[in-house]
Amino acid sequence: MQKTLQEIVAVLPEVQVIGNVDKIITDVTADSREVQAGSLFICLKGAHVDGHKYLAQAAEAGAVAALVEDIPEVCPAGLTLLQVADTRTGMEAAAPFFYDYPGKTMRMIGVTGTNGKTTTTNIVRAILRRAGFKVGLIGTINIMIEDEAIVAHNTTPDVVDLQRALYQMKQAGCEYVVMEVSSHALALKRVAGCEYDTAVLTNITQDHLDFHKTLENYRDAKGLLFEHLHEGEKENKTAIFNMDDASSPILRARTKTKVLTYGEGRDNDIYPLFFKVEAKQMRLQLHTPAGELDLLLKITGEFNVYNVMAAVAAVLAERIDKKTIVEVLNGFDGVPGRFQLVEAGQPYTVIVDYAHTPDGLENVLKTARSITEGKLWVVFGCGGDRDNKKRPIMGRIALELADKIVVTSDNPRTEDPAAIIAEIAAALQEVPDGKSVELIADRREAICHALAKAAANDVIMIAGKGHENYQILADKTIHFDDREVVQEYWKKR
Fold first, then answer.
1. Contact 64, 5 (CB under 8 A)
2. Which regions of the chain are under pLDDT 70?
3. What one-character DSSP code corresponds to residue 75?
């Protein structure tokens, strides 16, 4: 992939050029560590790092041009500067152009919402692949180009990384991209240059208020996916809404495309006629525009009824046949870290889940409660440097739904784990008879405490990290996997 510098200059808003534009650009990056010969280096001003400070380093590594806001006192020899008012805006124009707008040439299915995105996108991917399409996936766990996995650092990558990934998918022959679209990505325009065909809303509950400040701002950020869905040149666009979520009617009113709805009410396009949650499976009968679906699923929980309905709506919007949908759903065995049963020879049930929001924790605990014959344990914490308003809320939910509560660390980041635990514990002061609360900061110790004390027929829900195999501390990131802790404990036993 390459472009002339003059071609890139032509798509930039109000750009001033300092230096020679007769150059070939072979790469675009905003990370000075990734600069190579022929790169255009984008100098972003972040909260902690200013890319302008790395101009010399980028030039030394082979950059031939740089997108800047500020002109340095001394410009590295041979480096052409493209000055714009805002390098982020410039990046939003330059990156999709450099990669030939891959997000406008493949079918793009975007799934947004607080919870359920990962399971929904993975179901959609599986169905599209069974239908014979080559599919790329962009999500929380990883980026998939058919069967090739790439580690993901954000739910939605930044503009350059996203466009590069989409270009690689296009080159690999992908016809579809199924993508988790975060509120941050929409608010920060990381998805610039993408034209979505089908957009899905799972739900909007409290999360990320450290960034958005209010639930209304959070909803409005997610709403951008639907407000702009009609724009562009593609045909057959569909917006899909969970009508049991309070935000759906608001965002539906802002949408100018065809709409499919799902939810409990029989006035929806897709709704459950019957479902029965069991420990390791779920029976579900759905009404859909393509006819009734009779399903025996390997995933369970009422929250997964909604994920299945969302996925079914998305593939029906893409005109996938009923037979293919049923075959895939009955064989789909879940996503790592999403209500995942951990088997280590123990006499009780252990479940690991990514639930890290009030709504997410409530959903998985309600499902766990429905399959618990003995006591229900929950081991959980809250992430540091994130929305602290949800901490006591999650404490109240745990106390209401579980019998044995063990509060511990999640990813404390730069915060004191004890301070985070204290904010959760503020809601755990009045413990009813028959229930107990333990505060154990060390996550491994907390998990092992529950594993040691649980009795046969108990259920232990380990929440918050799910698929993650790391823990982010103040000064380092260490390897940590809840599932491995369980396996190691019982291996020693």
1. yes
2. 151-156, 206-213
3. P
Q: What is the pLDDT of residues 432-487, one digit of tens each?
A: 999 999 999 999 999 999 999 999 999 999 999 999 999 999 999 999 999 999 99
> What pLDDT score was predicted for residue 398?
98
Round to whole Å and give the CA distance between 315 and 133: 12
- CB within 8 A of 375, min separation 6: which ones? 403, 404, 454, 455, 458, 459
Domain ranges of the chain: 3-98, 102-331, 340-492
Return the CATH fold of 340-492: Protein-Tyrosine Phosphatase; Chain A (3.90.190)
Q: Which CATH number fits domain 3-98: 3.40.1390.10, 2.30.180.10, 3.20.20.30, 1.10.357.140?
A: 3.40.1390.10
Name the residue among 14, 10, 32, 6 with its Cα closest to residue 69.
Answer: 14
CA distances from 493 to 2, 196, 451 (A): 58, 51, 11
* CA proximity to 354, closest of 279, 437, 410, 425: 410
Considering the segment(s) 102-331 as one domain, its CATH architecture is 3-Layer(aba) Sandwich (3.40)
Q: Of 463, 362, 351, 356, which Cα lies nearest the Cα of 406? A: 463
DSSP 220: H
Cβ atoms 376, 403 nearer than 8 A: yes
pLDDT in tens, 50-98: 999 999 999 999 999 999 999 998 889 899 999 999 999 999 999 999 9
